[in-house]
Design brief:
globular; 3 domains; eight-stranded mixed sheet; 19 strands; 384 residues; Nonspecific Lipid-transfer Protein, Chain A; 28% helix
Length: 384
């Protein structure tokens, strides 16, 4: 008999931990320690939905509320995480039941966006689409320029000191993109098990930091999960240091599309691509566009008229009215707008690349290519 989907009961937490540890093998049986922003130590099951069979938890998902920064705007977003079913219970539609229940919970949460990572075809059936854009740089010992003289600043490994949490948090919080973090979030994420963070501060008081994870199958390869700081020379010092410390053969650096350090990464990378790392779903089209109105207004200067975006499969419409340097949202639709599915609208707004790379936009090509994609970023270190 299937019991659920439903919230987890406190006495079932050990069963949930056993399930996620068994299904996410690369985390070496340490999911709670490695993902503390999902499984909060005080209440690790507070965001979880489960299905129980035969007297035990056999299927699980979690809906994690977060706040996405987009310039000065704050956007409520839900990350769907840790979708897991014991192998012997697969093939009975449990994942589908949990995702349907998760979507119902998400839609009633007031969130504007939802995201996850995983198979595009599998999760596309439930409304998510691969979108967003980031640079993905590959750096090797040969592409990294040689050291000229001594480093201008000392470099140290983060070991959990509150002072260092504060220094890193001060750098992170200045960046206009990413997730909003409380002081407790910073401490929790920086102290997560399985990731290393390095930081450096120069004589002028500038701080830079970098969080990375070594490859599971090849420890000579690593991926950066978060970085920031100025000037570029500090980031370059950190890169040289981690290559030497871990004897790396390759380092992968996902980077926000408009990050000021991208010039440095272009100059030292052996290869680069643009990728859509996560899958997103739009929950409230009007609220989403309202949150991004400052960026849309900045990009639309000189345009006049209006355009309606219609997410036809979910019955949501929003009209952008252009008034010189100002854009307002209207409820009244305009004639001849753009009608797309929710997944297509996600790619229109977030990319990757210009909307006309994906769709035949007719007379709207010029304005839509100028407005979109919208600029935001989810650091791997924040992802759930």
């Amino acid at each position: 008999m299937i019991d659920g989907p439903r919230p987890i009961r406190s006495e079932e937490i050990p069963q949930m931990e056993k399930l996620v540890n068994a299904c996410f093998v690369p985390n070496a049986g340490r999911m709670f320690a490695r993902w503390p922003h999902i499984f909060n130590a005080e209440d690790p099951g507070r965001n979880s939905l489960v299905i129980a069979m035969d007297g035990k938890v056999v299927s699980h998902t979690a809906c994690i509320p977060q706040i996405l920064k987009a310039g000065r705007n704050k956007i409520p977003i839900i990350g769907v995480s840790s979708v897991a079913t014991f192998p012997e219970y697969r093939g009975h539609g449990l994942m589908g039941k949990l995702l349907d229940a998760s979507n119902e919970k998400i839609r009633s949460s007031g969130a504007v966006l939802t995201y996850l990572w995983g198979d595009r075809i599998r999760y596309g059936r439930y409304g998510w689409e691969s979108s967003g854009q980031e640079w993905f740089f590959t750096v090797t010992p040969k592409s990294l320029p040689p050291v000229e003289g001594k480093n201008a600043a000392s470099i140290k490994r983060f070991e959990g000191a509150r002072e260092d949490v504060g220094r890193i948090a001060a750098v992170y919080d200045k960046h206009p993109y990413g997730m909003v973090r409380s002081p407790a979030d910073h401490e929790r994420i920086l102290n997560r098990e399985g990731w290393d963070t390095w930081l450096t501060t120069d004589k002028q008081g500038h701080t830079a930091y970098m969080t990375l994870a070594l490859g599971q199958t090849n420890p000579k390869e690593a991926r950066v999960w978060e970085f920031d700081g100025v000037p570029d020379s500090l980031l370059l010092d950190l890169l040289r240091h981690v290559f030497k410390f871990y004897s790396l053969e390759k380092l992968e650096i996902p980077s926000p599309f408009h990050h000021p350090a991208n010039g440095l990464f272009f100059s030292i990378s052996s290869a680069y691509i643009v990728q859509a790392k996560f899958m997103f779903g739009i929950l409230n089209l009007s609220a989403l566009l309202k949150a991004f109105l400052p960026e849309i207004s900045r990009k639309s200067e000189g345009f006049k008229g209006k355009i309606t975006l219609n997410m036809r499969d979910v019955g949501q419409k929003a009209t952008l009215l252009f008034k010189g340097s100002k854009v307002v949202l209207e409820d009244k639709p305009s004639a001849g707008g753009i009608s797309l599915s929710m997944r297509e609208t996600t790619r229109l707004l977030f990319g990757p690349g210009s909307p006309s790379n994906h769709f035949n936009l007719g007379k709207h090509k010029e304005i839509l290519d100028q407005l979109f994609p919208l600029d935001f970023h989810v650091w791997l270190n924040n992802a759930v």
